[in-house]
């Protein structure tokens, strides 16, 4: 009887420990603004285009917004507090930009320094980081939180932007995709603007540029999409981990930026960027795999 009671107590103790651990994990993921994505099948490469392929995406967690100026500054302070000065120095942003076209959008070194340091732009996407700095940020976030962070794959980004819904229960899959990516609809609609299909409030704002004006926006300036994810298109490009071609030094960015035309905004479009570039129109987002949960 005593032995039986012992095993019962052991079972409940194990149950409550696991429950407490699970609750704690979910709380931390919520604090990190992570959204659970169950995954499923979708047409990768655009909706039913000649380049599309049926692809399965495993489940993952993704931050509902790009890394902000505030979050980047907070990690710098964490490095100082934990005496990680090599990492602190490595993460320092070089705001000198090579792209002369930036000037017509009112973006120069002085503006970018102010943009990064001012509390006014706390919730705006951090820009001008190199690919290596992005990876270092994710490495340190992993150390800080206990969850392995990474960049999204281009197919994960496309999966989210197309707002795919799947039962994912082992039965025959059903693909419910955004029909706005049907070529026939594009041709019928001369004033086609992809922003309206991502649940954004103001589809015209992205292409309204004025010289010496601030074109960046806070991540919550527009409504999130079906998955409650902000800024999958527009604001600034989004860094993906995948190579653009066989050269590892050229990576993919997606989603377009405030200066982009329609072709760059198309979610199947892949834009190349050199890993050494510190572009003023590229941000990044954190992903955590289920296996790290």
Can I get a quick summary?
By secondary structure, this protein is of the alpha+beta class. The protein contains eight helices and ten strands. It starts with a helix and ends with a strand.
Can you give a write-up of this model?
The strands form 3 sheets. Strands 1-4-10-5 form a 4-stranded antiparallel beta sheet. It has 2 domains: 1-31; 35-292, paralog of FGE (formylglycine-generating enzyme). The chain is 31% helix and 14% strand. Helix 2 (69-81) crosses helix 5. By secondary structure, the protein is of the alpha+beta class.
- CATH architecture term of the largest domain: Alpha-Beta Complex
* Helix/strand/pairing category: alpha+beta
Annotation field: number of helices:
8
Here the CATH topology of the largest domain equals: paralog of FGE (formylglycine-generating enzyme)
Number of domains: 2
Taken from the alpha-carbon principal axes, the silhouette is globular
Series of H and E elements: HEEEEHHHHEHHEEHEEE
Question: What oligomerization state is this entry in?
Answer: single chain
What is the tally of beta strands?
10
What portion of residues is helical? Answer: 25-40%
Distance between the termini: 38 Å
Instruction: Provide the gyration radius in Å.
Output: 21 Å
Class of the largest domain, according to the CATH hierarchy? Answer: Alpha Beta
Average pLDDT figure: 76
Uncertain stretches: 14-21, 164-213
Query: CATH homologous superfamily of the largest domain?
Result: paralog of FGE (formylglycine-generating enzyme)
Largest sheet: 4 strands, antiparallel
Order of strands across the biggest sheet?
Answer: 1-4-10-5
């Amino acid at each position: 009887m005593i032995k039986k009671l012992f095993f019962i107590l052991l079972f409940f103790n194990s149950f409550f420990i696991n429950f407490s651990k699970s609750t704690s994990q979910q709380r931390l993921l919520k604090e990190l603004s992570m959204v659970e994505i169950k995954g499923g099948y979708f047409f990768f490469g655009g909706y039913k285009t000649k380049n599309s392929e049926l692809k399965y995406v495993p489940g993952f967690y993704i931050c509902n917004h790009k890394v902000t100026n505030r979050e980047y500054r907070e990690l710098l302070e964490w490095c100082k507090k934990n005496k990680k000065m090599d990492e602190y120095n490595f993460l320092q942003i070089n705001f000198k930009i090579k792209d002369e076209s930036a000037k017509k959008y009112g973006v120069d070194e002085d503006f970018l320094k102010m943009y990064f340091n001012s509390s006014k732009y706390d919730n705006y996407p951090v820009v001008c980081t190199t690919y290596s700095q992005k990876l270092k940020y994710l490495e340190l976030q992993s150390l800080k939180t206990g969850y392995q962070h990474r960049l999204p794959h281009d197919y994960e980004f496309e999966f989210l932007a197309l707002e795919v819904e799947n039962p994912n229960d082992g039965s025959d899959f059903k693909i419910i995709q955004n029909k706005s990516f049907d070529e026939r609809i594009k041709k019928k609609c001369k004033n086609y603007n992809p922003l309206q299909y991502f649940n954004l409030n103001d589809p015209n704002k992205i292409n309204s540029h004025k010289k010496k004006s601030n074109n960046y926006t806070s991540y919550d300036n527009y409504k999130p999409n079906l998955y409650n994810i902000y800024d999958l298109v527009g604001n600034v490009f989004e860094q993906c981990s995948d190579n653009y071609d066989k050269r590892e030094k050229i990576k993919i960015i997606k989603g377009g930026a405030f200066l982009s035309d329609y072709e760059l905004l198309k979610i199947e479009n892949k834009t190349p960027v050199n890993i050494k570039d510190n572009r003023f129109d590229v941000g990044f987002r954190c992903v955590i795999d289920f296996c790290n949960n």
